[in-house]
Amino acid sequence: MKYWRAIICIAIICLFCMPLPGWAVNNPALEAKVDAFLKPALDYDLISGTVLIAKNGNILLAKGYGPANREYDFPNTPETKFRLGSMTKQFTAAAIMLLEERGLLKVEDTLTKYYPDYPDGGKITLHHFLTHTSGIPNYNSLPDYDEKLVQPYGIDQVIDWFKSQTLQFEPGSQYAYSNSGYVLLAGIIEKVSGMSYAEFLRQNIFEPLGMAHSGQDVFTTVLKNRATGHGGDGRTVYQAPYRDMPFTSGAGSLYSTVNDLFLWDRALYTDRLLSQASRDKMFTPYKGNYGYGWFIEQRDGRNVISHGGAINGFLANIDRFVDDTVVIITLLNYESTFSRAVNTGLAAIALGKGYKPLLVAETATVPPEVLNAYAGTYRFDFGAEITVSRDDRQLMIADNEGGGVTAAAQSDVLFFLRVRNALIKFLKGDDGTVNGVYWQQGAQGFRGKKIS
Fold first, then answer.
1. Smallest Cα–Cα separation from 307: which of 91, 128, 126?
2. CATH 2.40.128.50 applies to domain 368-450
3. Is this prediction's pTM over 0.70?
4. Which of 159, 184, 186, 305 could link 320 by a cystine bridge, Cβ 3.0 to 4.6 Å?
5. Other Cβ atoms closer than 10 A to 164
6. What angle do CA 205, 279, 107 make, to 5 degrees?
C-alpha cells in the first residue's frame, strides 16, 4: 500500500512539473537572437515590456524585459498584465459576432434600432462601426477630450457627450478610424445582452478560452501583476497620467497578458469560439484594409492579420502571420520611440528573415554630401518647425526654441536624438530630392515638409 502511495505521489509531482501543451520552454537560439536585438535599447532604458513568439501552436519565446513598475522595480514577466488600448476592438468585434450568431442582432442593423434619438442613426449600421466607415468623428479629436477621459462616465454618458457631432462623410463612403464607433458597439452589446460590456466578455470570451488574466481595467480594482504605464520626456521617464479606463469601453479599455493573448490567437484558427462564417466576416478587408477589429494586409507576400494599441503609457501589438501560423505579441509599458522597430524586427526574427539592428551601437558613417542634402528647415502640420544643419560629420537639429541637439546616424536616412528620445527619418521624392521628414517620439509620429 505504501509502495502505491509513493508511486501516486511521484506521478502527481511529475504532472505538475510538466509544461502545459503549447507552453514550451523558450527556444534557446531564438531567445538569444531576441535578447541581442533588444539589448541596445534596454541598455539605454528605451523599452520595457513582454514578448511572445509562437509557431504552429507552440510558444517559442515568452519573456519579460525591463521593469513592470519603476517605483518598486519588479520585472515584467509573461504573467504581467498590460493595458491593450485599441487591441480591445478585436474583442468587441468578436462579441458582436457572437450576438449575431445567436440571432440577437445583425451587422446590417441601423444605429436607430438601439439608439433611436441618435442623429442620422437610420443610415449608420453596425457594419459601419466595425469597419470605421460610419462617418462619426473620432472622439479623441474633440477639444474637451482630455478633460472628459478622467471622468467616471458610463458608456451612455460618453455617447451623449459626442453624439451631437456632425458626420464627417456619408456612412459607408470612406474609411476614417473612429473610437466613437466602438464605444457605440459596446453600448449595443450591453443593450442586447442585458449584461455589462465587461461581464459579457468575461462570460462569453475570456472564461471559455481560459483567459483568466484578461478583463476590463478599472483603477479601483486590486489587480495582481498589473504593469504601470510610463512615458518619456527626452531622457526623463515618468508615470503616465491617470485616465478612467471604462470611459473607452469597447475601444480601448481591456488588459491582458501575452499568455492569454496566445490562447486568443489559437482560438481564432478554430470554431471553438466563432464560426467560420463569423471569422470570414472579421478577416475580410474592407476600406482602409480594415476588417472587424483587425487590419488585414500583405507584407512581403505574407497574409497578416494585426492590430496595435496605444493608451497612456502602454503600447500593444499583435501580428498574426496566418499562412505561417506564426504570432508575435508585444506588450510594452513604456511609450517607446522604438516600438514599431521592435515589432518589425521580432517578426523578421520569427520568420527567419534578415533584420536591421534596433539601435546601432556606434554612429553610422554618412557621406558629407548626403548630410548636406538634409540641411534646411522643415515645418509640421501643427505649425512647429525644426532646422537641420551639418556640423562636421553629424547633423544638428534645432526647434523653434533654438538649442541644437546632435542626431546620431542609424543609417543614411535614419537618425536618433538621444537627448529627445526621438527618431527622425528623412524622406525623398521620386526624383531623389529630400522633401520632408518623419519624426517619431514615443507613440506619436509626425510628418514635416521641407520649406527651405
1. 91
2. yes
3. yes
4. 305
5. 8
6. 85
